[in-house]
Amino acid sequence: MDSIISIKDLSKIYNTGFEALKNVNLEINKGEIIALLGPNGAGKTTLISTICGIVSPSSGTVTVGGFDIISDFRKTREMIGLVPQELTLGAFDTVWSTIRFSRGLFGSKRDDAYLEQLLKDLSLYDKKDSEIRALSGGMKRRVLIAKALSHNPKVLFLDEPTAGVDVELRKDMWKIVNKLRSQGVTIILTTHYIEEAEEIADRVGVINNGELLLVEQKEHLMESLGKKQLVIDLKESVKKIPPSLDKYNIELTDDGMQISYTYVVKDEEVEISDVLNEISNSGLLLKDLKIVQSSLEDIFVDLVKEK
Predict the structure, then answer these.
(1) For the chain, how many structural domains are there in total?
(2) Crossing angle between the packed helical segments 112-121 and 137-149, to the nearest 10 degrees
(3) Distance between CA 21 and CA 27 in Å, rounded?
(4) pLDDT class for 163, splitting at 50, 70, 90?
(5) Do 161 and 147 lie in a common domain?
(6) Contact yes or no for 210/22 (Cβ under 8 A)
(7) Tens digits of per-residue pLDDT, 225-276?
(8) Domain stop point among 222, 244, 261
(9) Which domain range does residue 250 map to?
(10) What's the pTM?
(11) What does each C-alpha distance from 285 to 18, 275, 277, 293 come to in angstroms?
C-alpha cells in the first residue's frame, strides 16, 4: 500500500533534557486506521503534535502526502485535521460560525451543504446557531470533531477523542470514522479505551517512554503475542494436581474445583491436544472446559511491563 505519512528517525528533546520521542520510524498507509496505545506521558500526543506542526522535531523527518512538514508546512497542514484532547473553543462563537471560520482558515471554498451534512452526522445540526458556552461537554467535543473535518482533510488525528464523553457520542464518532475510512481518509487514533482500538483499528502501535515498541496488524498482534488459557471445571474437588501433569505448569484453584493451563499462541513447542490427552488420562473427573483468549489490553500491559 502507498504510505501517506512517512516518519524517519524522529526525535524530540525538550530544553529540560526530557526525551519525549526516541528515534521513531513509522509508515502510515492511505485509508487505514491506526491506533496508538500507551500510558500517560508515553509520547503519543508529542508524536501527533509533531506531525501536525505544533511541536518542532529535534531531529528526523516527517512527510505527509510526500511534502515535508517543515519546508512544505502549508501543504501538509491543509491535508490534516486534528481533534485535540483539550476543549479549545471560543465561548461566544456559534457552532456554525466556528466551523465555517475553521474551513476558511485552510483556504477551502465555501460549501455550506457539506458543513450542514457534517453537523447532521454529528447530531449537531439543531445546535448550529447556539453559542459554544451553552453546550455540554459532549456537544463541545462534537464541535471539535466538526472543526477538524470542516476542510475535508485527507488525514484525521484523534487524540483521546472519547475520553470522558458519553456512550452515544462514542457510537456516533465511530460511525463517522468508518464512513471517513470508506471515503479514503487516513485516521490516526490515540486512546486509553483499548477495546475501541480492538474494535476499529487496522493496525496497532504501542508507545512507551517515547519509543515505538511495535506496530502490527491487529489480528497478527493478537495471534503472535496473545495468550490463551485452557480452563477445565472438575466434577470433584482435588487437593493437588496429578504428578503426570507437572511438566505442563497447570494451576489449581483454591477450592480444587478448577484447573487452568496458559500458553502462548505462537509457541509451537507444546501441542494443546497433547495437554488435553494428558489431562484426560490423569484420572481427574472433567466436567466442562473452555478456552479464554487474551485481549489487546493484556498484550499491551505485557509489552509495557517487558520494556
Answers:
(1) 2
(2) 140
(3) 16
(4) low
(5) yes
(6) yes
(7) 667 778 888 988 888 888 888 888 888 888 989 988 877 765 555 577 788 8
(8) 222
(9) 227-306
(10) 0.73
(11) 58, 15, 13, 24
